[in-house]
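I am writing to request your help with a piece of structural work I have in hand. The matter concerns a single protein, recorded as an amino acid sequence and a row of backbone structure tokens. Could you please explain, in whatever detail you think fit, how the structure tokens follow from the sequence? Thank you for your consideration; the sequence and its tokens are set out here:
>
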Amino acid sequence: MTLVASLLTAACNPLLKNDLNPSAETWLKPPRDTGPVTTMGRVGAINMPTARMAEAGTIRVHSAYRNPYIMGGVAIQPLSRLSLNYRRVVDNRSRFDRGFRFSGGLDAKLLITTEAEFRPALALGIDSIAGNGIFGSEYLVASKRIGDFDLSLGLGWGRLAGRGPLTNGLTLIGGHFDQPETRNEADRGPDVWFTGDRVGLFGSVSYQTPWSLPWLDDTEQIRLIAEYDSDKYDREQRFDPGFDPGDIPVSLGFDTTLGAGFRGGVAVERFQTVSARLS
């Protein structure tokens, strides 16, 4: 009896300890789910990036509709801290309005620090390392999970500096960084990285609801997403003066797993247009 009592006490002690001293780890630990996939094909929010990464070895085929573009591509996660994304873009407007109909690009994101209880994950990304520079941008973004909420806040250069409320402090260094923001589709590569007069501020919040689709188990819940978009979409307006990006740079949507490895989402972007994603 003494032996049995000792075994029962040893088994219950961890449970009793956790009940009496709840750890912050349950509240602040990084999510098991890597999170939504953006229209660009990377792990992120709706359009804006986050510091979230897929598991190493992941290969993901993605597609999306984002006015005026139809997007598709392949993303790979060769290392736990490195994500690569190749995308092709079809302009949904007449080629006479745009000048070209097809374009492509290669994006990369590097995880600098992983998330801890009181430290956010931090990632550095460059869009359009190669290919057409219409989506060319660089960013530094931090992500932190608090309960069922996943918060991200980032700084953006290039296209993501469109609504830039901040001065680019790197221009104080001079040299490479001290050049105005005059990028176009042909500009890409290290010569234009982190340049421009302004830096954009973007962010997102996703909430993991308690609900899931009827055919899925309770661990695959729907996520609600709100995003502040720092892109002014001036490149679209340059070729199409009738393009209206909207006056409110906020997008709302949801994202969910669909089963069998599929993931999808729908969003109302800037209270102006609807986008859809499937990967």
